[in-house]
Design a protein that fits this description.
Elements lengths: L4 H12 L4 E7 L2 E6 H17 L7 E5 L4 H12 L3 E5 L5 H11 L3 E4 L5 H4 L8 E4 L9 E2 H6 L15 E6 L9 E5 H18 L7 E4 L6 H14 L2 E4 L6 H8 L3 E4 L1 H14 L2 H8 L2 H15 L6 E4 L6 H9 L5 E4 L9 E2 L11 E2 L4 E4 L4 E5 L6 E2 L3 H7 L6 E9 L5 E6 L4 E2 L5 E2 L1 H8 L5 E7 L7 E6 L1 H4 L3 H16 L10 E4 L19 H8 L3 H6 L4 E3 L1
Parallel strand pairs: 1-11, 3-4, 3-5, 5-6, 6-7, 10-11, 12-13, 13-14, 25-26, 26-27
Antiparallel strand pairs: 1-2, 8-9, 9-19, 14-15, 15-16, 17-18, 18-20, 20-21, 22-23, 24-25
Helix pairs in contact: 1-8, 2-3, 7-8
Length: 550
């Protein structure tokens, strides 16, 4: 009998190592564990409960929760019961929840660990059954703990065809409405095989590795590296309790693999330099014995003493930051992928080359369009966008290659450098086209900058909209002017005349998920930023001086 790949992998460990710890959840600073046997009992009861709702076959079931043990158990229960999983970002608004649930035709929703459910609840349509995990203090609709106590653990698990729709993953959407990316079981199976092969070649994980889950599980990278890899390898998966306890929890777990977006790595650096200023760090790293001690101490304090793979992706990372981590003994491997590819595209593998996202992963075909757009083809590409055949047709070539929307170039050895987004390129008043991403990357070398968006429509030269970092906000205006003047001069020196920055505009308000200017995966929503600030560009452009305050 054919099984969904995640269920099949879980059942293997439930049978072979029933007492091995599968899930670890901190609550009020106390860790709670579930063995494969204990998790299996809850998952099977949830699956029986879902079937007792008498929903149509392959109904869509959503999950609205931060990462937690019950997120994983709910997802596996949905598959085990023969339904399709629709995970949602835990911090989205009621409007977005309603938009996605109605578009997907979701029949029921698991509600778990959340910070603001009182405001999100209004987004759940009345016809959608709510299943709440009171374990995290939410009691709404059907209370899961009481509900599963009345169920018998499922024994006969429905079969699942490998190329049948398994999950719909809605993109975080840097532009426009989120789209539902569809995957079948075979795509996840192929992805697991490629990840395992990558790890085997680069630095194999031990049997039953320790994994740490903190980035949104509804994002393809975290789902791959936590749920998919965890089930395939029989891992112990620990969850972060909160943003505040993140450093403590990571240091406690010391996982065998750690994936962080560039902002996480920048924050780590900032915290280290607060306690150990760069000049002193440089001095200590020059002393052989002390250098070794410093590197080991920093790595352990970060929670990475056992991490065999340290990776970064989801957004560009400055080469200077990669080199800084290398100086303290931490090699970061930059990887590249997108939801529609099941995050399989390129990675720094046996050889690491900073400033690139590495070479094509095995079984990934890569070509470039005449305008340098990266296009890929492999077995784990999405089935398409849910209910959007026209949009699906737009992103595939007749030969079946996915148009990524990213521009790039290969060096002579096949290493890929991302040069920007096709849709981000803008035209200045002079009629010149500017790609903002490379400029933004070079500006990000400045630790005073937290976020930056280079724009230029309707003005002769591009300008940089800047949100200062915590370090930058602590400085005087004179210090910021000096800092940014030096950065802009460094950025402008190698640039063509039409690319040279004319102004650096300091924003008075941070860009955040809450105000709609960042996606849940911490990417700037360029279109939304432009909607607010576009009318002000000519005024800012006309001000005297390089640095302007909003």
């Amino acid at each position: 009998m054919e099984q969904n790949t995640l269920v099949k992998d879980f059942l293997k460990w439930e049978k072979e190592t029933p007492d091995h710890i599968f899930l670890k959840q901190p609550v009020d600073s106390i860790w709670h564990d579930w063995s494969f046997r204990q998790a299996g009992d809850e998952i099977r009861r949830m699956a029986s409960g879902l079937q007792s709702l008498n929903l149509p076959p392959r109904s869509n079931i959503a999950i609205l929760s931060k990462n937690c043990a019950h997120w994983l158990m709910a997802d596996l229960a949905i598959f085990m019961a023969g339904y399709v999983s629709v995970p949602l970002y835990a911090n989205i608004t009621a409007h977005s929840i309603q938009q996605i649930l109605e578009h997907s035709g979701t029949a029921a929703i698991f509600v778990g660990k959340l910070d603001d459910y009182a405001h999100q609840k209004a987004g759940i349509p009345a016809n959608v059954k709510t299943l709440s995990f009171d374990y995290y203090g939410i009691k709404d609709g059907i209370c899961v703990s009481d509900w599963i106590a009345q169920q018998q653990p499922m024994q006969e698990i429905p079969s699942w065809k490998s190329e049948e729709l398994m999950t719909i993953m809605y993109t975080s959407g840097t532009t426009g409405t989120p789209k539902g990316v569809m995957f079948h079981s075979a795509a996840f199976d192929h992805t697991a095989d490629v990840i395992i092969d990558y790890l085997r070649r680069v630095n194999p994980l031990p049997s039953h590795p320790e994994l740490f889950s903190y980035l949104p599980l509804c994002h393809i990278a975290e789902r791959n590296l936590t749920e998919l890899l965890g089930c395939r390898l029989g891992a112990s998966i620990s969850f972060v309790e909160s943003l505040e306890t993140f450093p403590r929890d990571l240091a406690h777990v010391q996982p065998h693999l750690f994936f962080g977006v560039p902002r996480i790595w920048a924050r780590f650096q900032e915290k280290i330099l607060e306690k150990l200023p760069q000049k002193r760090l440089d001095l200590l790293l020059k002393i052989p014995v002390i250098s070794s001690i410093i590197k080991k101490t920093l790595t352990k304090k970060l929670g990475l003493s056992r991490a065999l793979i340290k990776a970064t992706a989801a957004a560009p990372i400055p080469k200077s930051l990669l080199e800084w981590y290398q100086s303290i003994g931490i090699t970061l491997r930059e990887i590249y992928g997108m939801t529609e590819q099941c995050a399989l595209s390129h990675a720094n593998q046996e050889e690491v080359r900073f400033g690139t996202v590495g070479k094509s992963l095995p079984k990934v075909e890569t070509i470039f369009s005449p305008d340098d757009e990266i296009q890929t083809r492999h077995k784990a590409l999405m089935m398409g966008y849910y209910k959007e055949p026209a949009l699906t047709a737009e992103v595939f070539t007749p030969e079946g290659f996915l148009k990524t929307g990213d521009c790039g170039k290969l060096d002579k050895d096949g290493f890929l450098t991302i040069t920007g987004r096709v849709k981000d390129i803008f035209k200045t008043d002079k009629g010149k086209y500017v790609s903002p991403s490379p400029i933004e990357m070079r500006l990000h070398k400045n630790a005073d900058i937290e976020q930056v968006c280079v724009v230029g429509m309707g003005i002769p030269q591009p300008i940089a909209l800047i949100v200062l970092s915590a370090a930058g906000k602590a400085k005087s205006k004179e210090e910021i002017i000096k800092s940014l003047t030096a950065s802009v001069a460094e950025v402008n020196a190698p640039s063509e005349d039409y690319e040279k920055l004319k102004k650096a505009v300091i924003m008075k308000t941070d860009w955040s998920i809450a105000n709609g200017l960042m996606t849940p995966t911490m990417k700037v929503k360029r279109n939304e930023v432009e909607k607010i600030h576009l009318p002000k560009y000519p005024t800012w452009y006309g001000y005297e001086g390089l640095v302007v305050w909003e």
